[in-house]
Structure formats: structure tokens, C-alpha cells
């Protein structure tokens, strides 16, 4: 295998002449801080060579913030916000690049690089380096006429079918997992329709003694649907429906249907940068249980209400994500859950950043718990949902970086580039 890989590498090296190094960037070049957590920053440093990349945002003349959100067809919309700093304070620009679901990583990063160049030229033209920048227009493909609205035989419907699985084990343990999914989505400016079906099965086997094994098999099947009507730049209303079957939560069958309404304090077209959404839903629910519950129910009809407040901000100083959620059964107001979920990533000072995330939920609505409880084996391997009054998790991180402010050099030797993405062959 290794000789074949070496031969292929030598062939590619002969077929593609080495690309000349862009050389050092002049001192008068525009200083840019790139804030893009999912970007291949090494690629941009080698493709966009008329700017100087800096490590800290305080040293930049332009703060380039890249935010993303999914598109109706399964691609990604990248919003590039160019924010002027220092002598460019008060100047800003926004460009967008949309990738298709079948685009390769190279097509995506090339499209992003093109959009970045267009946005940075405006600022770079006003630096001493501006006289050395040349802007050209590519010729259109032969036979291409005026732009027109393309014909869509699918009428904006996008379908996806997938399956996945994994196997692992050793002499005393075996594990297998299989899943499948099907989705159909249609998203326009006025309507959003999402339909999905998922199924999964997991099997664990543990050797207890030399001659005996303990095996568990769990499955989950679920369907979800959502239809939302846009009611302007801030309001929307819709209907939600779901059905599921789960051995873990003691449900042979669960069905839920109900209307919902939402208000976003900020316009929806600013959602990649900021959101403050207030959502309320009222649902009818039907449950058929696998085993009798703690309350002696084999099946029951329920009604519940849910409310959510969600905040999302992405600015030069960092990102904030916070949501408050509450759900209550109208058939028994004492049965509810309420939780807070949040994450903050802040640039506190030059070179100093921190991140904190976590959640806490009060749980008082486990109507589905089986009266028989769980066996010792099911408890140890978490095959059954157990009674609890709360759930939580906490994460934190703190980073301090110091040294040179410049961030231009790309050196991928031995598979370690220092930042961005890298390619590695592992054996």
C-alpha cells in the first residue's frame, strides 16, 4: 500500500508544477482578521495574498466575520460581513455566497475566496498597495444569454435518503448500530415544509462469564413534520406533527399534533448574525405504552403547551447562544419541565478568550416511566429511561495567545499546519 501511495504522489507532483510562493506581503498591505470557525484558513492565506492576516482582531483594519445557515436545497449560505476598524471605522459591507449540497470542499472554499476578494478590494484600494491591485471581469461561458429565472421541475422540493451503521467489539464485548433516514423539504420565502422519517437499532452484548452473555437490543422510530407560513419579517405561524416508537422511553407509539406561532425581534433576514425568537406551541398528544406506567396507564390522551425564548448573537467580541424552554401538561399542571441552555464565547482582551456552555433542566413530566422499573443490567448499560428530577452539563475553556501579530505563513509539513485544515495519511 505504501509504495502505491508514494508512486501516486510522485505522479501528481510531475503532472502539476509547483505553485510559486506569493512571497512576503508589503508592510502597507491591508490588515485583516478572519473570524470563521469552519473555514480552511490556510487556503485563504495562499489564495488571497494582497492582504496581511493578523492573529488578534485589535490589530486589524478589517474584521471579516463569516456566519452560516442551511439552505432549502441542503447547501449552505455564507454571510461575509466586512467591518472596518481603525481608519476604516464606520464602514461596513455584506456579501453572500451560497454553496450547493453536491459541491466539493474545494468548490466551497474557492467560492468563499472569490467573495472575500470582492469584499476586501474596497478597503485595499484605499491603502498604499491599492495601485498594485488589478481587477478583471471573467468572460461569460460561450452561448450564455441574459440571466433568467431557471425552470425547476421539482418545484423547490428536495429529497434525501441515507443509511449508516457501525460495528465494533473485542473478545468480551460486541456492538452494532444501524440507522436509516428519509426526508422531503420544500423551502421558499413564503412557506417552509419539513418532513423526515428516521429509524435506528442498537445491539450490545457483554460476556458475563466464560459461558454466558448479556445482550440488549433497543430501537427507535420517529416521524416529524413542520409547515410554517411567513407573516412578514418578524412573524411566522405553523403546524407541527410527530410520531415515535422507542424502547428506551417505554413508548410503543406516540403521536403529537398542534399549532405554533413565533416572533423574532430582529428581522429574519439577519438570522445569521442575530436572533431573538419567542415561540409558543399547543399540542394534542396520544401515548400507547410498552409497559404499564407508574400511574397505571397503558394508554392516554394528553394536551401540552410549550414556550421557548432563544437568543443568538455573533459579533466581533464573540458569540452568545441562550434559550429558555418550558413545557407543561394541561391535563395536570404539576407535570412540567423547564430548562435553560446557553453558550458564550468571548474575546476578553488582546489574545485572551474564554468559552462557557451548559444546561440545566427541571424534570417533572416523566409520565411514560414503567411501573416495573428497570433491571440492574438495564440500569448499568442505560437501556431504560430512569426517573430524575433534573439534568445538567457544564463545559468551560480559557485560552491566552501571545507573540507575533502576523498570521500569513502556511507550512503543512508533517501534516501539522498550526491552524486551518490539513491533510494527513494515517496507517
Structure description:
With 427 residues, the protein is mainly beta. It has 2 domains: 23-132, Double Stranded RNA Binding Domain (2-Layer Sandwich); 157-400, Porin, CATH 2.40.160. The protein has 4 helices and 17 strands. It has helices spanning 2-15, 41-47, 105-124, 376-380, and strands spanning 30-35, 51-53, 62-70, 76-84, 92-99, 157-170, 173-187, 191-207, 213-231, 235-246, 251-264, 274-289, 299-315, 318-329, 336-349, 352-363, 390-400. The relative contact order is 0.10. Residues 8-26 and 420-427 have low confidence and may be disordered.
List the helices and strands and how they pair.
Layout: H1 2-15, E1 30-35, H2 41-47, E2 51-53, E3 62-70, E4 76-84, E5 92-99, H3 105-124, E6 157-170, E7 173-187, E8 191-207, E9 213-231, E10 235-246, E11 251-264, E12 274-289, E13 299-315, E14 318-329, E15 336-349, E16 352-363, H4 376-380, E17 390-400
Q: What is the arithmetic mean of pLDDT? A: 81
What is the N-to-C succession of helices and strands?
Answer: HEHEEEEHEEEEEEEEEEEHE
Highest CATH level, the class of the largest domain: Mainly Beta
Share of helical residues: 10-25%
% residues in beta strands: over 45%
Strand order of the largest sheet: 6-7-8-9-10-11-12-13-14-15-16-17
CATH-defined topology of the largest domain? Porin
Care to count the β-strands?
A: 17
CA distance, first residue to last residue: 9 Å
Taking the sheet with the most strands, its summary is:
12 strands, antiparallel
Query: Rg to the nearest angstrom?
Result: 27 Å
Amino acid at each position: 500500500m505504501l509504495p502505491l501511495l508514494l508512486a501516486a504522489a510522485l505522479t501528481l507532483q510531475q503532472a502539476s508544477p509547483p505553485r510559486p510562493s506569493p512571497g512576503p506581503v508589503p508592510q502597507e498591505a491591508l490588515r485583516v482578521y478572519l473570524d470563521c470557525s469552519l473555514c480552511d484558513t490556510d487556503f485563504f492565506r495562499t489564495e488571497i495574498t494582497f492582504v496581511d492576516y493578523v492573529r488578534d482582531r485589535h490589530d486589524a483594519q478589517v474584521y471579516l466575520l463569516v456566519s452560516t445557515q442551511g439552505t432549502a436545497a441542503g447547501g449552505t449560505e455564507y454571510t461575509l460581513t466586512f467591518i472596518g476598524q481603525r481608519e476604516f471605522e464606520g464602514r461596513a459591507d455584506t456579501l453572500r455566497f451560497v454553496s450547493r449540497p453536491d459541491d466539493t470542499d474545494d468548490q466551497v472554499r474557492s467560492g468563499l475566496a472569490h467573495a472575500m476578494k470582492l469584499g476586501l478590494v474596497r478597503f485595499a484600494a484605499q491603502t498604499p498597495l491599492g495601485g498594485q491591485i488589478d481587477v478583471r471581469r471573467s468572460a461569460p461561458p460561450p452561448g450564455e444569454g441574459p440571466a433568467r429565472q431557471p425552470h425547476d421541475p421539482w418545484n423547490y422540493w428536495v429529497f434525501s435518503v441515507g443509511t449508516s451503521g457501525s460495528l465494533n467489539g473485542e473478545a468480551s464485548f460486541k456492538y452494532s448500530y444501524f440507522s436509516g433516514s428519509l426526508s422531503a423539504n420544500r423551502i421558499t420565502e413564503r412557506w417552509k415544509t419539513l418532513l423526515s422519517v428516521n429509524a435506528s437499532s442498537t445491539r450490545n452484548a457483554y460476556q458475563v462469564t466464560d459461558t454466558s452473555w448479556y445482550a440488549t437490543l433497543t430501537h427507535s422510530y420517529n416521524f416529524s413534520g413542520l409547515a410554517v407560513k411567513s407573516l412578514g419579517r418578524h412573524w411566522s405561524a405553523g403546524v407541527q406533527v410527530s410520531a415515535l416508537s422507542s424502547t428506551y422511553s417505554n413508548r410503543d407509539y406516540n403521536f403529537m399534533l398542534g399549532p405554533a406561532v413565533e416572533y423574532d425581534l430582529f428581522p429574519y433576514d439577519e438570522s445569521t448574525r442575530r436572533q431573538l425568537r419567542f415561540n409558543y406551541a399547543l399540542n394534542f398528544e396520544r401515548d400507547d405504552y410498552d409497559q404499564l406506567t407508574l400511574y397505571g396507564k397503558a394508554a392516554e390522551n394528553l394536551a401540552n403547551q410549550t414556550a421557548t425564548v432563544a437568543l443568538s448573537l455573533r459579533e466581533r467580541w464573540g458569540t452568545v447562544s441562550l434559550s429558555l424552554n418550558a413545557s407543561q401538561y394541561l391535563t395536570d399542571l404539576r407535570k412540567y419541565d423547564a430548562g435553560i441552555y446557553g453558550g458564550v464565547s468571548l474575546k476578553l482582551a488582546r489574545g485572551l478568550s474564554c468559552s462557557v456552555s451548559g444546561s440545566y433542566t427541571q424534570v417533572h413530566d416523566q409520565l411514560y416511566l414503567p411501573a416495573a422499573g428497570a433491571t440492574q443490567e438495564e440500569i448499568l448499560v442505560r437501556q431504560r429511561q430512569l426517573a430524575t428530577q433534573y439534568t445538567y452539563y457544564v463545559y468551560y475553556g480559557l485560552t491566552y495567545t501571545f507573540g507575533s501579530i502576523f498570521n500569513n505563513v502556511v507550512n503543512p509539513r508533517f501534516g501539522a499546519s498550526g491552524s486551518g485544515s490539513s491533510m494527513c495519511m494515517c496507517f
